[in-house]
Write a structure and sequence with these properties.
The protein is of the alpha+beta class. The protein has helices spanning 6-16, 20-29, 34-52, 81-84, 87-103, 108-112, 125-136, 173-186, 198-221, 229-247, 262-268, 292-306, and strands spanning 59-67, 70-78, 140-148, 153-159, 163-170, 253-254, 257-261, 272-280. The protein is built from 12 helices and 8 strands.
């Protein structure tokens, strides 16, 4: 049996980009034959991982980790909901959250470079990710993360594994956790109306203006009086102000008591929320929709053409 050295493992890893443990296993199986080991890896992981890497990862989980005033929220994606419930995948997500909280990596690449071993893969988090892709046969990716390391207290809430919230606060922890749950349910976009992004406000204003124009055209067609420009402008602005109250956290009716706003509830218990982060799995990712009937029809047509 040939001796498998660290330099041989490193060389094979450089050629295949496979996890170190897999490289060592392949070299051992190939009795030190580099070419044979490379072939074994490409059969075992290369083709599978290569094909998987091009597929959309719109499912997955959100994981959080809090240790005092340090914490993290991460989203790790998979192709299917089935894999997102896999124990190894969930362990990977939890480990990623803890690594972010402890090391504050600059970006996803830096996160992947951190030391971590799982399921026989390693020595880095990225090596584990690649190893699990080969083992499970499905693409998975670290999409985004947020590091928290200020002086504020932290409270988190996970709705299942698909919605995650971290709240930065001072004051009562129970109230902060209630606010985190509220955010998961009501999905505000900012703390206050003044902090709602300008592009969202303009989008809402354009929608209100289009609706007003539609109403005016309908009134004209039906021979009814058309509202003045001044009244229309007030209607549009009223719609925008209504929208701002609906999407700003402090103005929303508190889910546990709709007789008071979130701001009023917090004031009553002497608690200040300084910020929040909300992750929803797959938000903004275009999911692939499979048309089974069309796929079968295409296969039948291809078979007829070949005949």
């Amino acid at each position: 049996m040939a001796a498998i050295t660290a330099s041989m493992v490193a060389e094979l890893r450089g050629k295949t980009d496979a996890p170190m443990m897999e490289c060592k296993k392949a070299l051992t199986e190939a009795d030190g034959d580099m070419a044979k080991a490379e072939e074994l890896l490409r059969v075992k992981l290369g083709t599978k991982a290569g094909k998987a890497a091009s597929r959309i990862t719109a499912e997955g989980v959100v994981a959080s980790y809090i240790d005092g005033t340090k914490g993290a929220l991460v989203e790790v994606n998979s192709e299917t909901d089935f894999v997102s419930k896999n124990d190894s995948f969930m362990s990977l997500a939890k480990a990623a959250a803890e690594l972010v909280a402890k090391h504050n990596p600059a970006d996803v690449a830096a996160l992947g470079a951190l030391l971590y071993e799982q399921d026989g893969f390693g020595p880095t988090l990225e090596d584990v990710r690649k190893g699990l892709i080969g083992k499970i046969g499905e693409n998975m990716s670290f999409r985004r993360f947020k590091y928290f390391g200020g002086s504020s207290k932290l409270a988190s809430y996970l709705h299942g594994s698909r919605i995650g919230v971290v709240v930065e606060f001072d004051g009562d922890e129970a109230a902060a956790k209630d606010v985190a749950m509220h955010i998961a349910a009501m999905k505000p976009v900012a703390l206050t109306s003044a902090e709602v992004p300008a592009e969202l406000i303009e989008k809402e204003r354009s929608v209100a203006a289009a609706k007003a124009a539609e109403d005016a055209a309908k009134a004209t067609a039906e021979g009814k009086p058309v509202q003045s420009d001044e009244i229309v402008a007030k209607r549009i602005e009223g719609g925008v102000q209504k929208y701002l109250k609906e999407v700003s956290l402090f103005n929303q009716a508190f889910v546990k008591n709709d007789k008071q706003t979130v701001e009023q509830m917090l004031k009553a218990v002497g608690t200040t929320v300084k910020g929040f982060t909300l992750y929803v799995v797959g938000e903004g990712i275009e999911k692939k929709v499979d048309d089974f009937a069309a796929e079968v029809a295409a296969q039948v047509a291809a078979a007829k053409a070949a005949a």
